[in-house]
Amino acid sequence: MKRLILTLCLPLGFGCAQMMEPGKTAQTDNSAQLEGDQRMVAAPGQNNTFYQNNIPVMNDSSQVTVPTRKNINHYVRGIMQDMAENLQYVNTKTPLAVSSFIFLDDDYNDGTLLGNQIAESFMHELHSFGVPVIDFKTTDYMRVTPSGDFVFSRDYLELSQDQNFNYVLAGTMVNHQGGVLVNARIIGLASKAVVGSAQGFIPQSVVDALDSSYRTDGVMLKQASK
Predict the structure, then answer these.
(1) What is the DSSP string of 153-183?
(2) Are 57 and 129 in contact (CB under 8 A)?
(3) Kind and range of the H or E element at 20?
């Protein structure tokens, strides 16, 4: 009789234990389901790797740099700053003119696009330093033509014979391995004395970037700088 009572009580006790802890069993089942469906989520701002088609791709947006290329004006500005350190007699009350830069081993009557552009850049730098610059290629009139209106001229007959400047900025250039050496100086026209000088170097890549354009029968031809 006792064995029969014990046999009947054991199943009842096991069933009561399961009824008393249903949440624990459900939690265990839910945890197992979450672990099977769980996926990793990276914290924002802490991972530079993005995934496309399960292939890791590095995000380099924070290291993007904009390529910059320096031109002739940048190097002329450096030469002008060096010249300003030893410049004498020239000030805001001494007008000055700028001539074309010429190659040292060439005919002093032959100009180049590079030499003319260096002169143009120096005109701007001198004006920025407060030195009065005389543009002697300016005529006394405006020449109106079907292709445009012009005030500049390289014909000395169209230019005024009276020019109000006593100093001139001039210079020479020399082809060098990897670029062009530039020798600049300011000279007094009456005394021929050098009152300021500086030297600089223009890389060949910058020189090659300067092109001249000519038109023949309506077709534009480009000639690299000398």
Answers:
(1) ---GGGS-S----SEEEEEEEEEETTEEEEE
(2) no
(3) helix 2-20
User: 80, 92, 151: which is closest to 120 by C-alpha?
Assistant: 80
Give residue-wise pLDDT tens across range 140-198: 999 999 999 999 999 988 998 888 899 999 999 999 999 999 999 999 999 999 999 99
Q: Which domains does the chain have, with CATH numbers?
A: 73-224 (3.40.50.10610)
By DSSP bridging, strand 179-188 and strand 194-203 are antiparallel
Distance of CA 3 to CAs 7, 17, 138, 190, Å?
6, 22, 129, 138
Q: In terms of pLDDT, which residue wins out, 150 or 226? A: 150
Phi, psi for 177 (deg, rounded to 5): -60, 120
| Nearest Cα to Cα of residue 168 among 124, 135, 129 | 135
Residue 213 has pLDDT above 50, yes or no: yes
Model confidence pLDDT, tens digit, residues 187-201: 999 999 999 999 999
* pTM > 0.70: no
Q: What is the CA radius of gyration of the chain?
A: 41
User: Phi-psi region for residue 58, left (φ > 0), alpha (ψ -120 to 50) or beta?
Assistant: beta
Cα distance between residue 38 and residue 30, in whole Å:
12
